[in-house]
Write a structure and sequence with these properties.
The complex is a heterotrimer of chains A (about 270), B (about 350) and C (about 300). With about 270 residues, chain A is an alpha/beta fold. Chain A has helices spanning about 50-55, 75, 80, 100-105, 120-130, 145-160, 185-200, 210-215, 235-240, 245-250, and strands at about 10-20, 20-30, 35-40, 65-70, 70, 85-90, 170-175, 200-205, 220-225, 230-235, 255-260, 265-269. The radius of gyration of chain A is 18 Å and the shape is globular. In chain B, strand 1 and strand 2 (about 155) form a beta hairpin. Chain B is globular and about 65 Å long. Chain B is mainly alpha-helical. Chain B has a single domain (about 5-15, about 75-345), classed as ABC transporter involved in vitamin B12 uptake, BtuC (Orthogonal Bundle). Chain C contains 13 helices and ten strands. Chain C has helices spanning about 1-25, 50-60, 90-95, 110-120, 135-145, 150-175, 200-205, 225-230, 240-245, 250-255, 260-265, 275-280, 285-300, and strands at about 45-50, 65-70, 100-105, 125-130, 180-185, 195, 210, 220, 235-240, 270. The longest helix of chain C has 24 residues, at about 1-25. Chain C starts with a helix and ends with a helix. Classes of the chains: A alpha/beta (about 270), B mainly alpha (about 350), C alpha/beta (about 300). Chains in contact: A-B, B-C.
C-alpha cells in the first residue's frame, strides 16, 4: 500500500456540536485515511456517535468543519456522498414489514439512476457476507437484534459494493455494529471489515469492546481523554491503547496480557 | 414465509377490480337501464351531437357517468394520499385527515352553510353554486398550511410535531363545527350532516373534470415519491444518508395530498376510511414496496368508492344513502376478513 | 261524462296521426319525459314538501303522485308513496327513475345540482318560494294545480281556503286585550332551540294573534334560562314531535329554562303536529283557528 495522502481523506477540524448549553462534541480534530480500520472508542456520553455523525455528514457541526478529500461534506451534496460513504446506525427502526432482502436492496438506492449490471447479485452477495442469506424472505421486524444488525451491515456493504470508476475511496462508517452480535459473529464481522479495508475502503467503526479494537483496528480515536485539549487522542492502536490511558479514560483497573496468537488483549476488574 | 404476490399481478388484479366496479356502477342505478339500452348508449357516446338523446342516454351521460368518473377520481385520490401519509409518518395508522385537510374542509363547509348568509353574502353572488366547493377547498388548504407551519422546526419539518399539531388543530376544527351546530337551524344542521357524511350526488361534469384533473396531476406528481418513501421507511436520517432530500419529499407529499384530498373533499364531502384502508389491503397481498402500493391503492380506492356508491344509490332507491357510511360498512368487514386471512403477515 | 267521450275519440284520431308522424320524424330531439300535447294521460308528479303533498290530495290528484319526500306525512296515505329521500338530499336518478312529468318543491330543496340534472332530462321542476306568508300557501295551490293539470280544482280550493283564512283572520283581529307573548320551542335533537324573526314559527305566531316573545335576532338559537326569563312568554308553543322527543309534557315542563316563565306557572302550552303547525299548507287556517283561542286563554 502506498503511504496514505492525508489530503485525500475524511477528516474533521475543531468540530463542535452543541445543543443549547450542552456540548456533545468539542474541538474534535480527526484525520482518517482510507485502507485502514479506525476504531472510535470512549466511555458512554463521550461523543462517539456524534463524531461519527459529523464525519458522515448526517450532522452539521455547530463550529468547525468536516471535509472529504479536501472539500466540505455539504459541498459534495448528500446524493453524491451516498455513492461513496455509508453509515450503519446503532439502531434503526424500520417501518412496515419490509423483508430482510428488501432492506438490503434499499442500500442500492443511491445507485438507482445508474444501476450496476448485477444489482440482484450484489444484494445476494452482501447478504452472504454477513451470513443472513437464509433470512432473506423474512420480515425484518421479526428478526432478533443480532440478525437485524447483520442485515443492516449487509445493506451498507451493498451500498458501497463496487469500487468507483474514478478511483475515489469508499468510506464505511459503522456505529457499534457488534453490540448485538454473538461472539462468533462479532469476530466474523470485524474480519470482514478488515478485508474491506484491505481493498482500499476507509472503515471507521465505533466500538465499545476494547479487545476487539486492539485485535482488529489499525488505529484508534479515543474520546473522553482527560488533560488533553478536545479530550481526543488519535494514533496507532498499540501506541494509544496503553493501560495507563485506558485506566484514565474508562476508570477501570486494566491489565495487559498477550494471548497465544501474540496479540495483546486487556483484562479488567 | 412471505408468499407475497408479485407487484405486477397485484396491479393487474386491482385494475381488474376497478374495471368490474366500473361495469357494476354503469349497469346499476335507481333509473332502470337495460343492458341492450346501455350498449346503445355507450355506442353513441362517441357521436356527439348527432347521437340519439333517449332518456336512457341523458340519464347515463348527465347523471350516472359523471358520478362514476367522480367516484374513480375520489377513490384514487384518497387511496394515493393515504399511502403517502402512511409512508411519510412511517405509520400504517396514518390517513390523509392527519394533516387537517378533511377537518379544514369540513369547518369551512360548516361556516358556509351556517353563517354564509350572514357575513358572506357576496360570495354566493359571485360563486353561485360553487360557493361551498370553493370554500371547502380553501378551508382544507388553509388548515393544512397551518399544520405544516406548526410542524416546522430548525429548518425542517418534524413529523412528530405535525402529528401533534394535526391532532390539536383537528380537535379545534371539531369544536368549531360543534359550535356551528349549536348555532345552526334544523335545516342547516341537516345540510351540514349530509355534507359530512359524503356523497357523489353533486356530480356535474364541470366539477368532475376539475377534480379529475387535480387528482390526475397529483397522482403523476406522487409517482416519483414511491422509491424515496421506501428509503424513508428506514428512518429519516438513514434516508438522508442514502441521498434522499427528505424535506423536499415531505413538502411534495403534503402538497399532493392537500390538493388531491382537498379537491375531492370539497366536491364530495367527507369520505372516510378509504385512505386508511386501501393501502393496508395492498400491503397485505403485495408487501410494503411503495412502488406497488401507491398505484395499487389508487386503483383499489377507486374500486371501493365505486362499489360503495353503487350500493348507496340502489339499496334504498329512489332515496340515497350517504357514501361515507357505506365505505365503512363495506370496507370494515372486508378489512377484517383480510386481516384473518393474512394475519401472519401483519 | 261528455268530456270523457270527446277525449277518447280525440285519442283515436291522435293515435293515427302519431303513427304517421313518428315514421317521418326520425331522430327528434324532444325530451321524451315532457308531456306530449296529444296525450290524455295526466302528469305524473313528485312532491317534495309535506304541504305540497297535502295540496295534491286535496285536489284529488293523488293518483298522479308517484313519489314524495320524507316530510310528506299527511294524509296517512302519503306515507305509503315511494319516498325520494330527505328534501335537501335528493337523488337525480332516484327522481327520474319514477318517470315524473313534474317535480314540485320549495326553494329549500336540494342539492341544486340534482334539480338542474332533473331539469335537463326534460322534467319540469316547479319551485315554490317559501316566505312564511299566506301567499306561500296560495302559490303552492297554484303551482300544484298547474303541474297536475287540475287548475279548475285548484282555483276552487283557493277560493275555499281564502274564505277560511279571511274568517280566521277576522276573528284574530277582533280579539280584545293584549296579545300574548308566545315562545316557540323546537326540540328534535338534544338541545332545544327557540325561534326569532324570519322563521315559520314567527309568522305563525303573528297570524294567530300572538307576539313572538323573542326578538332582535333571526333564525334559531339555543334556549337559555336567562333569555327565557327575560322573554317572559305567556304561552309556549311547540310541536307534538318535540314533546315526544322530551318524553312527554311533564318532562318538558321540567326543563330548567322554562321554570322562570309565566307560561310555566300556568302550564300554558299548545302543541300541534309539526307539519300542521309550520308546514304552511292548506290546513293552515285550521291550525290558526286552533291556536288563537289557546293563545287568548293564556292571557285571560
Amino acid at each position: 500500500m502506498k503511504a496514505p495522502d492525508l489530503e485525500l481523506g475524511l477528516r474533521c477540524e475543531d468540530a463542535e456540536v452543541r445543543i443549547g448549553a450542552k456540548a456533545l462534541l468539542s474541538r474534535a480534530t480527526v484525520r482518517l485515511a482510507p485502507g485502514r480500520v479506525t476504531a472510535i472508542l470512549g466511555p458512554n456520553g463521550a461523543g462517539k456517535s456524534t463524531l461519527l455523525s459529523v464525519l458522515s455528514g448526517q450532522r452539521e457541526p455547530t463550529a468547525g468543519r468536516a471535509l472529504l478529500d479536501g472539500r466540505p461534506l455539504r459541498a459534495h451534496g448528500m446524493p453524491a456522498l451516498a455513492l461513496r460513504r455509508a453509515l450503519m446506525p446503532q439502531e434503526s427502526a424500520v417501518a412496515f414489514d419490509f423483508s430482510a432482502r428488501d432492506v438490503v436492496a434499499l442500500g442500492r438506492y443511491p445507485h438507482r439512476l445508474a444501476p450496476a449490471p448485477d444489482e440482484d447479485a450484489i444484494v445476494a452477495a452482501a447478504m452472504a457476507l454477513t451470513d443472513v442469506s437464509a433470512l432473506a424472505p423474512r420480515v425484518l421486524n421479526t428478526l432478533s437484534g443480532g440478525e437485524k444488525a447483520r442485515v443492516h451491515m449487509a445493506r451498507v456493504l451493498a451500498q458501497l459494493w463496487h469500487p468507483r470508476a474514478d478511483g475515489a475511496a469508499r468510506w464505511l462508517l459503522l456505529d457499534e455494529p457488534t453490540a448485538a452480535l454473538d461472539l462468533a459473529h462479532q469476530h466474523a464481522a470485524m474480519r470482514l471489515l478488515r478485508g474491506w479495508a484491505g481493498q482500499g475502503v476507509g472503515v471507521v467503526v465505533v466500538l465499545h469492546d476494547l479487545n476487539l479494537a486492539r485485535r482488529y483496528a489499525d488505529e484508534v480515536v479515543v474520546l473522553g481523554v482527560p488533560d488533553i485539549p478536545g479530550g481526543l487522542c488519535q494514533g496507532p492502536t498499540a501506541e494509544v491503547l496503553a493501560p495507563p490511558l485506558i485506566e484514565a479514560v474508562w476508570r477501570m483497573p486494566c491489565q495487559s496480557v498477550v494471548g497465544a496468537d501474540g496479540i495483546e488483549q486487556y483484562l479488567f476488574g | 414465509m412471505s408468499q407475497r404476490f408479485p407487484p405486477r399481478a397485484v396491479l393487474a388484479g386491482c385494475a381488474l377490480l376497478l374495471a368490474f366496479a366500473l361495469a357494476l356502477g354503469a349497469v346499476s342505478g335507481a333509473y332502470a337501464i337495460s343492458l341492450p339500452q346501455l350498449w346503445k348508449v355507450l355506442a353513441s357516446l362517441g357521436q356527439g351531437a348527432a347521437a340519439d338523446k333517449s332518456p336512457e342516454y341523458l340519464v347515463f351521460v348527465n347523471i350516472r357517468l359523471p358520478r362514476l368518473v367522480l367516484g374513480v377520481a375520489a377513490g384514487a385520490g384518497l387511496g394515493m394520499a393515504g399511502t403517502l401519509m402512511q409512508g411519510l409518518f412511517r405509520n400504517p395508522l396514518a390517513d390523509p385527515g392527519l394533516v387537517g385537510i378533511s377537518s379544514g374542509a369540513a369547518l369551512a363547509a360548516g361556516v358556509t352553510i351556517v353563517l354564509g348568509a350572514w357575513f358572506m353574502p357576496v360570495l354566493p353572488r359571485t360563486l353561485g353554486s360553487w360557493t361551498l366547493v370553493v370554500m371547502a377547498f380553501g378551508g382544507g388548504l388553509s388548515v393544512t398550511l397551518l399544520i405544516y407551519a406548526l410542524s416546522r422546526s430548525e429548518g425542517g419539518t418534524r413529523m412528530a410535531l405535525m402529528l401533534l399539531a394535526g391532532i390539536a388543530v383537528n380537535a379545534l376544527a371539531g369544536a368549531g363545527l360543534g359550535f356551528l351546530s349549536v348555532m345552526a337551524t334544523d335545516e342547516q344542521l341537516r345540510s351540514l350532516q349530509f355534507w359530512l357524511l359524503g356523497s357523489l350526488g353533486g356530480a356535474r361534469w364541470s366539477a368532475v373534470i376539475l377534480v379529475g384533473v387535480a387528482v390526475l396531476l397529483s397522482c403523476v406528481a406522487a409517482a416519483s415519491l414511491a422509491a424515496p418513501l421506501n428509503a424513508i421507511a428506514l428512518g429519516e436520517s438513514q434516508a438522508a444518508l442514502l441521498g434522499v432530500d427528505v424535506e423536499r419529499i415531505k413538502r411534495r407529499a403534503i402538497v399532493v395530498t392537500a390538493v388531491a384530498v382537498g379537491a375531492v373533499t370539497a366536491t364530495t364531502g367527507i369520505i372516510g376510511f378509504v385512505g386508511l384502508i386501501a393501502p393496508h389491503w395492498v400491503r397485505m397481498v403485495a408487501g410494503p414496496d411503495h412502488r406497488a402500493v401507491l398505484p395499487a391503492s389508487a386503483l383499489l380506492g377507486a374500486a371501493l368508492v365505486l362499489v360503495s356508491d353503487t350500493v348507496a344509490r340502489t339499496a334504498m332507491a329512489p332515496a340515497e344513502l350517504p357514501l361515507g357510511v357505506l365505505t365503512a360498512f363495506i370496507g370494515v368487514p372486508m378489512f377484517l376478513l383480510m386481516l384473518r386471512h393474512f394475519r401472519g403477515r401483519i | 261524462m261528455t268530456e270523457e267521450r270527446i277525449s277518447s275519440s280525440l285519442v283515436r284520431r291522435r293515435d293515427a296521426l302519431r303513427l304517421a308522424a313518428a315514421a317521418s320524424l326520425g331522430a327528434a330531439a324532444l325530451p321524451l319525459f315532457a308531456q306530449s300535447p296529444e296525450a290524455k294521460k295526466l302528469p305524473r308528479l313528485i312532491t317534495v314538501s309535506g304541504a305540497i303533498t297535502e295540496v295534491v290530495y286535496l285536489l284529488g290528484a293523488e293518483g298522479q303522485l308517484v313519489g314524495t319526500d320524507t316530510t310528506s306525512l299527511y294524509p296517512a296515505a302519503a306515507r305509503g308513496t315511494p319516498k325520494v329521500g330527505y328534501m335537501r338530499q335528493l337523488s337525480a336518478e332516484g327522481l327520474l327513475s319514477l318517470k315524473p312529468d313534474a317535480v314540485i318543491a320549495t326553494n329549500e330543496s336540494g342539492p341544486p345540482v340534482v334539480l338542474d340534472q332533473v331539469r335537463s332530462a326534460g322534467v319540469k321542476v316547479e319551485i315554490v318560494q317559501a316566505d312564511h306568508s299566506w301567499g306561500e300557501v296560495q302559490r303552492k295551490n297554484q303551482v300544484v294545480g298547474r303541474a297536475a293539470a287540475r287548475e279548475a280544482q285548484a282555483r276552487a280550493l283557493q277560493v275555499k281556503l281564502d274564505a277560511e283564512w279571511a274568517q280566521v283572520q277576522q276573528r284574530v283581529a277582533a280579539a280584545q286585550g293584549r296579545k300574548p307573548r308566545v315562545l316557540f320551542v323546537l326540540s328534535h335533537s338534544a338541545s332545544p332551540q327557540v325561534s326569532g324573526e324570519k322563521t315559520a314559527a314567527h309568522a305563525v305566531i303573528g297570524y294567530a294573534g300572538g307576539v313572538n316573545a323573542l326578538g332582535g335576532f333571526e333564525g334559531y338559537r339555543p334556549m337559555t334560562a336567562e333569555a327565557m326569563a327575560t322573554a317572559a312568554p305567556d304561552i309556549v308553543m311547540t310541536s307534538d314531535q318535540s314533546i315526544e322527543a322530551h318524553g312527554g309534557i311533564e318532562r318538558f315542563w321540567q326543563r330548567p329554562e322554562l321554570a322562570l316563565t309565566p307560561a310555566f306557572r300556568k302550564r300554558s302550552l299548545v302543541t300541534l303536529d309539526a307539519l300542521l303547525l309550520l308546514g304552511f299548507g292548506p290546513r293552515m287556517p285550521a291550525a290558526i283557528a286552533e291556536l288563537h283561542p289557546k293563545f287568548m286563554a293564556a292571557v285571560a
